[in-house]
Structures are given as structure tokens and as C-alpha cells.
Amino acid sequence: MMSLQACQVVLLLVCVTATVHGAIHEIKQNGNRYKIEKVTDSSLKQALASLRQSAWNVKELDLSGNPLSQISAADLAPFTKLELLNLSSNVLYETLDLESLSTLRTLDLNNNYVQELLVGPSIETLHAANNNISRVSCSQGQGKKKIYLANNKITTLRDLDEGCRSRVQYLDLKLNEIDTVNFAELAGSSDTLEHLNLQYNFIYDVKGQVVFAKLKTLDLSSNKLAFMGPEFQSAAGVTWISLRNNKLVLIEKALRFSQNLEHFDLRGNGFHCGTLRDFFSKNQRVQTVAKQTVKKLTGQNDEECTVPTLGHYGPYCCEDLPAPFADRLIALKRKEHALLSGQGSETERLECERENQARQREIDALKEQYRTVIDQVTLRKQAKITLEQKKKALDEQVSNGRRAHAELDGTLKQAVEQIELPHATEEQSPLQLLRAIVKRYEEMYVEQQSAQNNAIRDWDMYQHKETQLAEDNARLKKLNGEADLALASANATLQELVVREQNLATQLG
């Protein structure tokens, strides 16, 4: 006989199979939880319509692991008590607007291709790892939020609008494309934020100060930071902090951390020994925690230095640098130039490959973590839709390329007419025309340069003559002045002689 418990499970689990336009979908129910399997874009509306009678009872709707490339809030409007929506492991593209779902608390969007996401005011937990998201909009709500956006295309905290950055409790932006962080942009979460994960981005600068009253963990490992500055006072109350595998050279010695600090990991950097000495002299408890952290993670008292010549201060590798920032900057720029020009050393090339491989391993692990078991039929449908979307994107690129080609062709022909290009024909390809135009402009440039040089030479000659005339004029003025003085002297002498002559005539008479 079947047990009472087994009977209850059978009663709770109801499978409904429907045939719609040749496609079969299955609906499984467990209380107010519903899962729809084997549903496609063409059968989604019918599948949801089959739940209309019990729409008032649906609190959780699971559409994961299907080949859905589109879904709208209007499709889900009848489910007025919907709190959890699972759309993971589909092939959703471009913009997903669920802002009007005012009761939705949890959304699982992992493993899709969404680029822009809009959610409503009641959202509390958002899982959207492994997408192409570059923008998220959250309607203003009063509740706390947990947002998981690992492995997307976020480039700045501002890619999350103000609603998404307010009242956040857990924010995971691991494996995105962020290069600068301004803590002030999370001011709306100053009294709620507990966990901030920015691991494996490209962050080289941290700005702004906010007192995060409840922040417990801060992960900025595997970035490009060179200075742990005063902005990190925003995380003074953390119990767990990691800036492992950055480019850290200096630490602000005035930084202070909570007595509750339990994990402090700064391995894999390039410290100046003096900065560690100054920092740890003011933070002896932090030094103790750092040693305990290294011991726990590696089993050794000190981190292992990749360069044998490096020394240690505290548990971390360091070296004495006469000009810390300048020395490191010059070294990094030299390495960057060498790698880009293909002239980097084997050691530098291997280091670059290790960094890229480490990032790729994290991406692969994240995809595996959120992987959903999908049957082969659905996998093939998903692959087909993915290829169709790629084909569509490529078609758009081709179309844009053709438009650009046509515009270029028209521009080139206008240029040919304007510069009166000789020997130009309709049969010439745009590339041939472009080369001829470039050649003609180079000739015109040479001609203009020659004319300009001649004009400059003429101007210099004019300036020289003008200078000579000015000098001659000054000399003539001087001579005229001397002549005027001589004439005045002669007149005076003549006058004197006239007077003497008159006096002599008087005496003789």
C-alpha cells in the first residue's frame, strides 16, 4: 500500500501535458509553486493561459531551462501575487522589462544574454549572473536588496541606477568591466550594505568616502589598484577584506580598522617596504590578523615571493624603492609597451597569460555553479536560437557595413568632384578612389606647404626690409637731429657775429 506521505506528494505534484501547435509543454505544481517545462516562444502564451484559473494562487513560477528568447511583463500580468520568477538558463536577449510586476520579490535570470534589465519596487533578490548586462534599473522601494550581477558588462556603479544602489545589502559585481569605483555612489546603502564583491574587474582607482555602518566583507582582489588610500576608511568596520593580486605599492598609514577584523589579505602585490612598516606600526592588530590570514590560507608564516630578491615586512613581500610610484609606473609602462609590441620577455608574457587564465577559470567556475540540467532537445533549441540571434546580429553588422560603404562611396565621389581628381572613373573601387584621393591630398599638401614656405620666406624678406627701413629711418633721424644742432649752433654764431659787426660799426662811426 502507498503511504499517507507518498499520497500527499502525489496530490501535491500535478503534471499537465498540453499540445499546442505541435509543441508539448509540461506544467508541474507543488502548492503555489509552478514549473513549466518544454515551453517555447510560440507556446508560452498558451502555457501561461492554461494557468489563468489558478493565477491568483501562483506565487512562484519556474520557467528555467527552456529555449525562451523573449518574455514580457504583460505575459505575467494575470499573476497578481507572483513573488518569485525563475527565468534562468534560457536565451533571453536585449532588454527585459519587468518593472510593472509590483509584487515580484525574487528574480533569477542567471545564464541568459540580457543586455538591459528593469525591475519593480518590490524586488529583494536579483540573480543575474552570466549575462551581457550593461544597465540595470530598479524602481524605488523601501526594502533591502541583494543584487548578484557577476560576469556581466557593467563598467561603473552608475550603470546601476539610483534605485538599484539604494538599500542594497549584498552587491556582487565580480567579473565585470569596472575601472574606477566611487564609494559615494553607494551612499544610499550606507546603513544597509554588508557585502561588496568587486573581484576580477579592472579597477585602478577608488574615490569617495562613505561610512558603511554595517559593511562586513569587501573583496577587491584581482584588480589594478596601486594605492590603498584614505577612501578605504569607508570600510573601517569590516571583518573581512581582500586586495590580493593587485598592483599595490603604498598604503595610507592613517587607515584604521575595526577590532573585529578577522581576515586581511594583501598577498600578490608589489609593496614598498616602508609603507608596510609605517602602516603596521600604527596597526599592530592588523599585522597580527594579516599573519593569521596568510598562515590559514597558505600554511606558511609569510607569503611566497615570486621574485627571490624581494624581502618581507610583516607577512607580505616588499622591496625598498627610492621613488615607489615612479619606479612602479615606469616598470608597468615598460611591460605594457613590450607586451603590446610583442617584445615582452617570456616571464612577462607568462604572467599576462596567468592573469587571463585565472580570470577565465573564474568565469568557467561561475557558469558551472549556475549550470542547469537541460535535456538535449531543449539544448538544441537553445543553440538554434542562439545561432539565429548571432546571425541576426551579423546581418545587422553587414547591413550597417553596407550603409557605411554607400555613405563612404558618396563621400568619396563628392571629394573627387571637389578636388578635381584627374583620371578618376566610375569603375574604380572605393579603396582605389580613397588611395587616389589620399595621394591627391598629399600632393595638395606638398603644394600648400611649398606656397606656405614661399609666403613665409616673402614675409621674412618683408620683415627684414622693414627692419632695415626702420634702422635707416632711425639713423636719418639721428643725422637730422645732429644737423639741426649744427645749424642752430651756426645761427647762434652768425647772430653773435652780426652783433659784433654792429658794435664795431658803432665804434668806428
UniProtKB/TrEMBL annotation:
Gene3D superfamilies for the chain: 1.20.5.4090, 6.10.280.140, Ribonuclease Inhibitor
Superkingdom as given in the UniProt entry: Eukaryota
Matching PROSITE patterns: LRR
Zinc among keywords: no
InterPro entries reported in the protein's UniProt record: Leu-rich_rpt, LRIM1_APL1C-like_dimer, LRR_dom_sf
One matching Pfam family: LRIM1_dimer
Keywords on record: Coiled coil, Leucine-rich repeat, Repeat, Signal
Signal peptide: 1-22
Regions that span the bilayer: none
Protein name, per record: LRIM1/APL1C-like dimerization domain-containing protein
Species: Anopheles merus (Mosquito)
